[in-house]
Amino acid sequence: MGLLTKKDAGLILDPLADNNPITIQVLGICSALAITAELEASIVMSVAVIFVLGIGNVVISLMRNIIPSKIRIIVQLIVVATLVIIVDQVLKAFAYELSKTLGAFVGLIITNCIIMGRFEAFALANGPWKSFLDGIGNALGYGVILIIVGFFRELLGSGTLLGFPVLGDPIAKTGLYATGYENNGFMIIPPAALIVVGIIIWVQRSKNPALVEEN
Amino acid sequence: MAINTDKNSYTVFFAALMVVVVGSLLAFFASSLSGKIKENKRIEKQQNILYAMGVNENDEASVTFVSKDKVEAEFSKYITEQLVLENGKTVENDEAYLLDLKKQLANNKNGDAASFPIFIGSKDGKKTHILPMYGKGLWDAISGYIALNDQMIVQGVYFDHVGETPGLGANIKQRYFMDDFAGESILDGTRYAGIQVAKGNNDPLNKTKDDNEVDALAGATITGNGVAAMIKETVDLYKPYLETVRN
Fold first, then answer.
1. Nearest CA to CA, how far is A187 from chain B (Å)?
2. Which of A5, A165, A188, B103 has the lowest CB atom count within 10 Å?
3. What are the beta bridge partners of residue B197?
4. How many Cβ contacts (< 8 angstroms) between chains A and B?
5. Do B11 and A37 touch (CB under 8 A)?
6. Angle at B58 between CA B44 and CA A170, to 5 degrees
7. What is the pLDDT of residue B222?
8. What is the ipTM of this complex?
């Protein structure tokens, strides 16, 4: 990491594993449940959150010394809502197709607790560059889990990946379906995301016992 | 100089400033981009209408509209007539595609004058009547177009949605769902029955075309019911027109 000091690199890398916003801090679960039935939606959401959290963290960090502490949550909310609306408008004007795909996510991005959480916990106390790295790192950590969950849910639930049938045709009974395999309809409904996230948390904690809390 | 950010007067000042800054920023973006956004919406509408009557660039499994730069020319080539239905009578109106169905439905509900657009398409010598649709899904509005021939057989449909769940209700705009509608009749005998989106269908490949049924999407019951209700409402709404062209 030539460009980054060891500490800066940690800001990006820690949230990918041992300080992951979803599996360790258990934030952002609502959107992780809602949109991971398909891999494509997971990827779109991850990119959108990387963008919003990276820029939002910088904006909040630049404003950190002038934000009145009594109304800081409202200010944070306004910053993220404004950012998302501007992005949405610009996409509608210049990349209409993409904006249609993103339409459903706009509300979910604004209410994503990871975004408010990083503003509050990091950007308010750190400089813009560190905040930028922290934002990107946490959004990546969120995205990684989203994509893992999306991968398994789409594969097991619909037998496709990014919309391409990879296991054969379930109606004409070709490929794997010829052997009697069936899609698991449970995987496309939201509770399945909780189970997949649960399994990820289990695997992660059994590999690194330091993450297990003492009772 | 450190600012005392705890003072009430500063808090009020900051809040007021923030409102002004954010407000003007959003207003600036909204007004400078609105022309472009309107244009995009118009193009999309024309693409959707053409899609329903079968003018598109689909390959095996994709949903591909005619391209943006061609849509104007294709629209005037394939759409031979634009009509509006007002009080049970049809009148010619070359700008019917600019009407907003949602607004017209609201007018109709309030008892005000309403005009419902109808597009007559002609492709390879076959005439289709394309009707716009608008209804409710699970989370938000759903909409679309349905193309019928003189025998009231569906020639094609296009569905769209604002915020249905990705992977579930959002799949109403997938080919495998939309293609099932083609060939179905909206009539059951002489009754305007519409098309049901049926669960536990004994005909998942949709081989029977005279049962007024297509196979539902797993996990999207409410969106599917919304689609069926939307088709039924459209058919009822346009019944006075359909009666005059049916044979």
1. 10
2. A5
3. B214
4. 90
5. no
6. 120
7. 92
8. 0.71
A209 CA to chain B: closest CA distance, Å? 35
- Tell me what pLDDT residue B223 has: 93
Averaged in consecutive runs of 10 residues, what is the pLDDT profile of chain B (247 residues)?
Answer: 77 92 93 90 91 86 83 89 87 85 90 90 90 92 93 92 80 89 88 85 71 84 93 92 86
Option in B3, B11, B40 nearest A96 (CB): B40
Pick among B1, B8, B12, B40 to test the A interface (most A CBs inside 10 A) = B40
C-alpha to C-alpha distance for B109 and B237, rounded to whole angstroms: 12
Cβ contact A71–B170 (<8 Å): no
Nearest CA-CA partner of B145 in B125, B117, B106, B122 = B117
Least CB–CB distance from A104: residue in B2, B6, B163 = B163
Q: What is the C-alpha to C-alpha distance for residues A183 and B204, in angstroms, rounded to an integer?
A: 15
- Give the pair of three-digit tokens for residue A82: 């404004």
Is residue B150 helix, strand or coil?
coil
Within 8 A of A151 by CB-CB distance, chain B residues are none
Question: Helix, strand, or coil here: A201?
Answer: helix
> What single letter denotes the amino acid at residue B94?
D
Q: What is the mean pLDDT of each run of 10 residues along chain A (215 residues)?
A: 72 81 81 81 86 92 89 90 86 80 73 87 91 92 91 87 80 78 82 90 86 72
Instruction: Count other Cβ atoms within 10 Å, centred on residue A202.
Output: 11
Residue A198 and residue B139: Cα distance in Å, rounded? 27
- Predicted local distance difference test score (pLDDT) of residue B146: 95
CA distances from B153 to A170, B14, B178, B244 (A): 28, 62, 14, 15
Instruction: Tell me which residues of chain A have a C-beta less than 8 Å from any C-beta of chain B.
Output: 34-35, 37-38, 40-41, 65-71, 74-75, 78, 82, 85-86, 89-90, 92-94, 96, 103-104, 107, 153-154, 157-158, 163, 171, 185, 188-189
Report chain A residues whose CB lies below 8 A from the CB of B200: none
CA–CA separation, A58 and A133 (whole Å): 9
Q: Which of A93, A104, A107 sits opposite B33 (nearest CB)?
A: A93
Identify the DSSP state of B217.
P
- pLDDT value of residue A1: 46
Indicate the residue type of A75: V
Structure tokens at B77: 């080539």
- Number of helices (H), then strands (E), belonging to chain A: the values are 9, 2
Q: Which amino acid is at B50?
A: L
